Amino acid sequence: MGARAAVTAAIEEDRQTRALVLVSFPLVGGKNKESREQTLLDLPKDVDVLFVSGSKDAQCDTADLANVMSKMNARSWLICVEEADHRCLTGRLAAEWLRDRDVNTRRCTLSWKEEAAEIHCSGWETHGEASKSDAEDIEPRRKKQKRK
User: Fold this and answer.
1) How does the average pLDDT of the chain come out, rounded?
2) Region entry Disordered: which residue ranges (predicted)?
3) 148 to each of 47, 141, 145, how far by Cα in Å?
4) CA dihedral 57, 24, 52, 12 (to 10 degrees)
5) Where are the beta strands (DSSP E) in the chain?
6) Predicted pLDDT of residue 94
């Protein structure tokens, strides 16, 4: 419910939300598997959204999510965790995205090998075209952070 609640809060008029990290967003839910697409479509264009979703997440098919992302006003990125279900653990990548998001690279794939307890990251890849205005818009929002 956290990802869905974050979207609802970001839509409210007085909010100044600049970025959302939506881990395991429940695109469908309830007994009748109703779509929750509209809340994502209601996000304003000045909000950046990072989706982190498992390839085996019964509540968020990544192909359906990609379709919704293509219709959103807000700019969006996707980290797909291969073989992960709705409970995938992905906070570190989300933190990296908040710090260094690049409008020219929009997709990252993780593979989890449970038997070996290994995670492989593809790195950020180009997925679709980012407009020039996207690149210009994001620069003022980035803050330089000191690395330790």
Assistant:
1) 79
2) 123-148
3) 29, 22, 10
4) 140
5) 19-23, 28-29, 34-35, 48-54, 75-82, 107-113, 118-121
6) 72
